[in-house]
Automatic annotation (TrEMBL):
InterPro entries: AraC_E-bd (IPR010499), GyrI-like (IPR029442), Homeodomain-like_sf (IPR009057), HTH_AraC (IPR018060), MarA-like (IPR050959), Reg_factor_effector_dom_sf (IPR011256)
PANTHER family: ARAC-FAMILY TRANSCRIPTIONAL REGULATOR (PTHR47504:SF6), RIGHT ORIGIN-BINDING PROTEIN (PTHR47504)
Name of a matching Pfam family: GyrI-like
PROSITE patterns in the cross-refs: HTH_ARAC_FAMILY_2 (PS01124)
GO molecular function, one term: sequence-specific DNA binding
Spans through the membrane: none
Keywords: DNA-binding, Transcription, Transcription regulation
Protein name: AraC family transcriptional regulator
Domain HTH araC/xylS-type: 8-106
Superkingdom of the source species: Bacteria
Length: 277
């Protein structure tokens, strides 16, 4: 298997198992590789050691969990990721330069600055307003060609255009454009945010950069507007609507499905999808 594909699959595996006792040995064994070889290629492909990647993903996901579960005790969230109360506070402060308590208190359900455009402050709608545009859907598994993007989500638009131009021969009127986003840019350092740009394809397309995206039960928010407003809408859903909804996010990634992209007006028609249980 191509080494880049191995590393991408290992990143997926780590993100989906953050609440387990992950180690270099267990991950390398899962992919039937020696830990020395796996450690080397992981560092070469990502710029981070396996240990450093696991550690910062655990801390970042715990911060997301605070937003999604505002009534849950901080100590319990830390325990979910294998940290004692004192250790959790130390590693959280080192990563986010504030304590878990202050971070939780600073999470607003009304507004927030845009991390990649700090001069902008977005205002959230009410839970009822978000609910009016949300429906529950059962999505099917789908096979896609993808390109993994790691960096500032503000750069996704240009990367999308490059990706579409490179793969236009595999596209037709039935092609669906999708992206899997793994990080909350209000939590994760912008240069470390992960996103998969995807187009549906025939499993016999013959390319290596392919995968299956798992279906299941998803909440779907219908969005029609400017690309710059996607962040505001997603943050509102995660911060305002989801904690009150009674649903729980699963799989640790969201899915955006695009139906139309206007390059001239920088606007889109799309669904913002969150896997729930």
């Amino acid at each position: 298997m191509d080494r880049k594909k191995i590393i991408n699959q290992s990143i997926d595996y780590i993100i989906q198992h953050l609440d387990e006792d992950l180690s270099l040995d267990t991950i390398a064994a899962h992919f039937f590789l020696s830990k020395y070889h796996f450690s080397r290629i992981f560092k070469e492909e990502t710029g981070e050691s396996v240990y450093a990647f696991i550690k910062r993903c655990k801390v970042d996901q715990s911060a997301v969990d605070m937003k999604l579960n505002p009534k849950k005790a901080i100590t319990d969230i830390g325990l979910d990721y294998g940290y004692s109360s004192s250790n959790y506070s130390t590693v959280f402060r080192k990563r986010h330069h504030t304590s878990p308590t202050i971070f939780k208190q600073s999470t607003s359900v009304h507004s927030m600055p845009v991390p990649f455009s700090p001069e902008r402050v977005v205002q959230f709608k009410t839970a009822e307003e978000y609910d009016a545009q949300i429906e529950l859907q059962e999505l099917h598994d789908c096979f896609v060609i993808y390109r993994r993007f790691i960096g500032n989500y503000a750069d996704i638009e240009n990367n999308w255009y490059q990706f579409l131009d490179q793969n236009k021969t595999f596209m037709n009127e039935k092609t669906v454009m999708m992206e899997r986003f793994f990080n909350d840019p209000a939590v994760t350092i912008s240069s470390q945010c992960i996103c998969d740009l995807c187009i549906t394809a025939d499993p016999d397309c013959g390319l290596d950069n392919t995968m299956w995206i798992k279906g299941g039960k998803w909440i779907v928010y219908h969005f029609n507007g400017e690309i710059q407003d996607i962040f505001e809408t997603l943050q509102g859903i995660f911060t305002v609507w989801l904690p009150q909804s009674g649903f729980h996010m699963v799989q640790r990634y969201g899915l955006n499905r695009y139906y139309h992209i206007d390059r001239d007006t920088h606007s889109v028609v799309m669904d913002l999808c969150i896997p729930i249980s």
